[in-house]
TrEMBL record:
Keywords: Calcium, Disulfide bond, Metal-binding, Secreted, Signal
Annotated ranges, domain Lipase: 19-354
Gene3D superfamilies: alpha/beta hydrolase, PLAT/LH2 domain
Similarity field: Belongs to the AB hydrolase superfamily. Lipase family.
Main location: secreted
Alphabetical GO biological process terms: lipid catabolic process
PANTHER family the record matches: LIPASE, TRIACYLGLYCEROL LIPASE
Localization (cell): Secreted
Stated name of the protein: LIPR2 protein
Annotated binding of Ca(2+), by residue: 208, 210, 213
CDD domains linked to this entry: Pancreat_lipase_like
Amino acid sequence: MLAVWITTLFLLNAARGREVCYKRLGCFSDSPPWSGIPGRKMAGLPSSPDAVNTNFLLYTRDNMVKYQKISATNPSTIKASNFRAHRKTRFIIHGHLAGADLPWIKSICRFMFHSEDVNCILTDWRGGSSGLYTDAVNNVRIVGAELEYLVNFLEKDYGYSPANIHFIGHSLGAHVAGEAGRRKPGIGRITGLDPAGPLFQYTPTMVRLDPSDAKFVDIIHTHAGHLFFDFAPGILQTCGHLDFYPNGGKKMPGCHQLRVPPATRDINDLMRDATIFGGCHHSRSHEFYFASILYPTGFLAYPCDSYEDFKKGICFPCPQEGCPMMGHYADRFPEKLKRVDQKYFLNTAADEPFATWRQKVFIKLSGVKKTRGDINLVYYDTQGNSKEYEVASGDLTQDDVYTEYLDVEINPKNTTKIEFLWNKAIFSLLWARLGAGTVDIIHGADGHRSTFCGRGTVAYGDPQVLTPC
């Protein structure tokens, strides 16, 4: 009988889990949902606050290059700093193995200073994120508690409203932001940049970033999938009010890392390798974000059920209420809080600054009755840049209309000229001539239609300047 009681007590204690407490930050346990549930079988407690060593490094327009270290445990550092209570405050939070990521964090602050006067605070928790992935996952809660502690201090001593705070977290940093928001109600905004998937995907909302963690939560997915099947470190499920899936959210154009089949089932080894071999896709989320600061209209995203529907043009153009801009200005979308789990899709360019403007083009040909080749449009801007896009290839017939959706890297507001260009197939007639009878362009942002005429025909390889009809 005694053995039965001992076994029962052991099982009850195991179910309750272990707990560790810290004077400033409170207690942390490894009871469910923090461990021992589907998708989160790991068991562990966070490291001590001293070991995690969370530091808050302030940048402002007054100190754009050299940070000022501030701390709620040493209030004089805040008083002596350039922190100003009348400004909005944006916290930038890195993820696992973030040593190489710190330059982008400094860059994102400087990009912000081009357009706004803010307190930009780098949340440096490398002491808790540089080891095993599973340890870093446990330490997310410590950093979230440190953020809560600082926000509480600013609210109490400076009258600073949590509504003026924006957490921007990459990978595990997104869940740090979620934990801080869960602990501190009223945070204005959280942006998750490809939030980490392993040990968070399809777990209870208490564990991961979700729409209840701030007044507005927006997500950019760039390497979403399943770690053991797709070798992808990002979360696939929606976890915000607006979830953006650029290029489908899984693989990014311009990233050419070798796809290495997992040689292990160990999550720590897989996450380390995913950082090495898939880092480009994962990093695109923050690259898109700071490009959006300078090119806001170039990241317009369309509400759609799937990426396949988006590519087919089913969700084109923007609906009457408009489309949100992925990235820095997503909070300007009037319908952002209409519901949670809203999916938005867009395509980006392969190279910086990644911005594109989606258009639907219709080309009606004139000239030879039938030939083979390809037809293209070439766009020019005020800086002398040009980009060429194929509209159709194969059999080309006079008076037929050829339609294509283009993601143009030239801002329509800066477009100075559009040319029609065609190339013949190998065995086509040398003397064949084609022209664009009319070219209609529908702009995705507002459905506005522009019509151009080609005036005659041209030989293959010769550009034909289009002019408004």
